[in-house]
Amino acid sequence: MDVAFEGISKWYETRTGRPVNAVAHVDLRIDSGTFVSLVGPSGCGKTTLLDMLLGVIPPTTGRIALEDRGPGGGTPPRRPAVVLQAATLLPWRTVRSNVTLLDECGPGARRRTQRKAHERDAQVEELLDMVHVREFADRYPWELSGGMQQRVAIARALYTRSPLMCLDEPFSALDEFTREALHIELQRIWDAERFTAVFVTHNIQEAVLLSDRVIVMAPRPGRVVADIAIDLPRPRLHEGLTDTAFGGYVREIREALRSGSAAAA
Ligand SMILES: Nc1ncnc2c1ncn2[C@@H]1O[C@H](COP(=O)(O)OP(=O)(O)OP(=O)(O)O)[C@@H](O)[C@H]1O
Ligand SMILES: [Mg+2]
Predict the structure, then answer these.
(1) What whole-number percentage of the chain has pLDDT above 90?
(2) Does one domain contain both 69 and 47?
(3) Residues 6+ apart with CB under 8 A from 176
(4) Atom from ligand 1 closest to the CA of residue 50
(5) What is the pLDDT of residue 73?
(6) DSSP state, 222?
(7) Does the Cβ of 16 fall within 6 Å of ligand 1?
(8) Same-domain check for residues 214 and 250
């Protein structure tokens, strides 16, 4: 799915009465099938941009255009899939029925829930296999570790087959080993499915590892200060983090963050 932020600004009303300019003048085009990261310090408007993309909040100015050109493109427009920092699984539903939860929501719910059980089950098994939690399909979320719950949240997002996946710091609460494993998984899944990914992170190395493009943001007001194409072969492994080319991108992003924040101070 192609995504375009056109002249986007966002002002929040606050209780003190003084509005906050969370995002100012963002113009950004993301081509279908691209993996893009938004990187920037706390408060620079990353979640605000994502929430506007998801349609959770409206922009104050500008518009966001979504165009689905994929094989399933056209009408009705499909909703973006979401993965957040917390897995947000429903504790009273099994892993399997958490993955299929969105079948029961929104327009077309009746048609989706009446789909043959064996078709649905086969799809769920395949996804849970992909994220390595298949043997937990009939367990409850609270019986799983945090990393496993996050894998289920990724499976739930993939189940929707949305051509757009929005991820807001999905790995930040995880330990280093789990995070590295999920970096590899996510690259593999994205390579197979080629959805458009908008990935928010504080972690520069994570952004370089996963992305085709890294958008660097600065605060007060939140804005884009650099747009860096990452031209490294895939799959990208953690062993490659010490390579010169990889290190060059990390330095370039760090420099953009530093000068953006200095300008804001
Ligand atoms: N509902 C709200 N009401 C008022 N101000 C808000 C609201 N949500 C966010 N803000 C303000 O907008 C700015 C951007 O917030 P946002 O959550 O988008 O930042 P972020 O880049 O996602 O930060 P973090 O990395 O900490 O998640 C901040 O100054 C924040 O205080
Ligand atoms: Mg945020």
Answers:
(1) 65
(2) yes
(3) none
(4) 18
(5) 53
(6) B
(7) no
(8) yes
Determine the Cα–Cα distance for residues 164 and 123; give it in Å rounded to an integer. 19
Q: For residue 44, which atom of ligand 1 is closest to its CA? A: 21
pLDDT band per the 50, 70, 90 thresholds, residue 193: confident
| pLDDT of 23 above 80 | yes
- Number of folded domains that form the chain: 2
Residue whose entry in the numeric block shows the structure tokens 């490294």: 232
Domain-ending residue, one of 161, 195, 210: 161
Determine, yes or no, domain membership for 85: no
Res 109 pLDDT > 90:
no
Phi, psi of 48 (to 5 degrees): -60, -45
Pocket of ligand 1 contains residue 170 by CB under 6 Å: no
Let me know whether 260 and 197 are in one domain. Answer: yes
Range of the domain at 59: 2-80+164-264
| Structure-token pair, residue 80 | 């973006």
Q: Check if 222 has its Cβ closer than 6 Å to any atom of ligand 1.
A: yes
- pLDDT band for position 71 (50/70/90)? low
118 and 247 both lie in a single domain: no
- Residue of 14, 44, 171 to mutate, ligand 1, most atoms within 8 A of C-beta: 44
Ligand 2 centre distance from Cα of residue 120 (Å) = 33
In short, whether 43's Cβ falls inside 6 Å of ligand 1 is: yes
Whole-model pTM?
Answer: 0.91
